[in-house]
Specification:
The complex is a heterodimer of chains A (118) and B (125). Chain A is an all-alpha fold and 118 residues long. Chain A is built from 5 helices and no strands. The relative contact order of chain A is 0.13. Chain B has one domain: Fumarate reductase/succinate dehydrogenase, transmembrane subunit (3 helical TM bundles of succinate and fumarate reductases), CATH 1.20.1300.10. Chain B is built from 5 helices and no strands. In chain B, helix 2 packs across helix 4 and helix 4 runs antiparallel to helix 5. Classes of the chains: A mainly alpha (118), B mainly alpha (125).
Chain lengths: 118, 125
């Protein structure tokens, strides 16, 4: 890391969230795709990711996807428009705020379900 | 990978058209995936409980052609987008040429296997 400012953090978070989402995607394809081996295999895997820890972990996955999507749109704005460069710092903070807001809303919807066991 | 701020920079930095085409692909697939995946998360995780993703529910949903198409688009676009993104990281951090060759070979094989597995799963029911 050199002494970069917002742009560098945006880049680092983009790379980390991208790799994390890819890891999740690969597991997700295996866990959902396991249905071709029949109900027993599918449900035995379903019971594992149905544990509270993994269900709450998905809130972090949602955060990663939201950040990667919004920052990706920010990168496109930087590439394609001059105004995107002028406002890149503000756009980075907007990305962070929207990501945290989305995660908070997801947590608000999901946590009662996990606690209630439904 | 291309580190460019504008389309013209990217064009000048690319030695072959392949890198430029990936640069464009990442942007187009990125916009499409934003809608497909945020929609997918909204419909299958935020709106409804993950507990409901039982075997019967998944089979019932994926029997419908529209969902087959939707999920197959996510599968193919996100695997390509993710594989290319991870390639940028591999090329940045795996410095020795033989290591890079092996890491890439194994990684691409894994991605291809997942693509075949997911496609077979989607279209076999």
């Amino acid at each position: 890391m050199y002494r970069g400012r917002e742009g560098q953090w945006a880049w680092l978070l983009h790379r980390l969230s991208g790799l994390a989402i890819l890891a999740y995607l690969m597991l997700h394809i295996v866990s959902i795709g396991s249905m071709i081996f029949g109900e027993e295999v599918y449900m035995s895997i379903h019971e594992i990711y149905d544990l509270a820890l993994f269900r709450l972990g998905l809130i972090a996955v949602v955060g990663g996807v939201l950040y990667h999507s919004l920052n990706g749109l920010r990168v496109i704005l930087l590439d394609m428009t001059g105004r995107g460069i002028v406002y890149q710092r503000q756009l980075f903070y907007a990305t962070l705020v929207l990501t945290l807001a989305g995660m908070a809303f997801t947590a608000y919807k999901v946590i009662p379900r996990v606690l209630g066991g439904y | 990978m291309i580190r460019a701020k504008t389309y013209n920079d990217a064009k000048q930095q690319s030695h072959t058209n392949a890198e430029l085409n990936w640069w464009i692909f990442m942007r187009i697939s990125g916009v499409v995936l934003t809608f497909l995946i945020l929609g997918h998360i909204w419909m299958t995780y935020v709106q409804v409980s993950e507990k409901d993703a039982t075997f019967d529910a998944v089979v019932f949903k994926l029997q419908q052609p529209a969902w087959k198409l939707y999920d197959w688009l996510i599968l193919s676009l996100s695997l390509l987008h993710g594989a290319n993104g991870a390639r940028y990281s591999i090329e940045d951090y795996v410095r020795s040429r033989p290591n890079r060759f092996w890491v890439k070979s194994i990684f691409y094989t894994l991605i291809a296997a997942l693509f075949v597995f997911g496609t077979v799963g989607l279209f076999s029911i």
